[in-house]
């Protein structure tokens, strides 16, 4: 009898472990591609659309990130520093410690820096 109980406890433990692991796995398979060139229209704008536009939509809060104006707003508003990418206000706001940190995953933040390093193109 005793081994059976132990087995049950073990399988419950395994199930919890699998649930926890699948949570992490889901986090890692977010559709963010850090290899190669970041595309503004296919990578950056969808990120702004899903994480930022609810607030940054031209109705009071500075920096409109809606698709029709976002690239121009970022470039002309001084949010991007291609000479010193990690000094860009867009980036310093979303890194840990920045006031927008909670809206950006670490992968999205890394993608943003990479996009700036690649010249912040409207590609
Ligand atoms: C829930 C609303 C909300 C969301 C979502 C949000 N922001 Fe903000 N954002 C604000 C507010 C309010 C401010 C002004 C206060 C501040 O700077 O912290 C701001 C300020 C900023 C600024 C500085 C603007 C300036 O001219 O000083 C940047 C850059 C920024 N947000 C980027 C982002 C990015 C990128 C995202 C998405 C990852 C995002 N924000 C998501 C509300 C939001």
Quickly describe the structure.
The protein is an all-alpha fold. It has helices at 2-28, 40-51, 70-76, 89-94, 106-117. The chain contains 5 helices and no strands.
Fold topology:
Blueprint: H1 2-28, H2 40-51, H3 70-76, H4 89-94, H5 106-117
Helix pairs in contact: 2-5
Could you explain the architecture of this structure?
By secondary structure, this protein is mainly α. It has one domain. 52% of the residues lie in helices and 0% in strands. It has 5 helices and no strands. It has helices at 2-28, 40-51, 70-76, 89-94, 106-117. Helix 2 packs across helix 5. It is elongated and about 70 Å long. Bound molecules: heme C (HEC).
The topology string of helices and strands comes to HHHHH
Beta-strand segment tally: 0
Rg: 20 Å
Judging from the principal axes of the Cα atoms, what is the shape? elongated
- Given helix and strand content, the structural type is mainly alpha
Report low-confidence residues grouped into runs of 5 or more: 22-29
Strand content: under 5%
Essential attributes:
binds heme C, mainly alpha, 123 residues, 52% helix
